[in-house]
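Researcher: Next sequence.
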Amino acid sequence: MSARFIEQGIVIKVEGSDVWVELTPGERCKGCAACHLLSAGKRGVIAEDPVGAAVGDMVEVEICQETRLIFPLIVFGLPVVFLLVGIFLGRLVSELMAVLLGFAFLFLSYLLIKMVDRYVAGQMQYKNVVLRRL
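Model: Next structure:
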């Protein structure tokens, strides 16, 4: 089971069984990438909603630790690693090949991230969950 922590926020959008919850960034939020940028200065998460919250409801959300730590590392780190590997391998042939392989590997990293995203989206243990209405 993944580590989780609890935050409070306001439901701003309902999409089927999921809700968009606007959170007020607290001290724990510094350096955290679990939230999406919703609009100017506003941050929030998408969460599974078993309690049936409506727009405007104040809710308590259990946030998955992996969305906070591991997934940003994959999203931002993997492309850099793939780019550098492509450049390194291409330099063995020529500078032009280094540029071409660098971009090719960068593109491959985004395809891999997309596949991981689709897999993770279906895994309940990685979802944020609304615990209750306040």
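Model: The beta strands are 4-15, 18-23, 36-39, 42-48, 58-64, 128-133. The CA atoms of residues 8 and 37 lie 16 Å apart.
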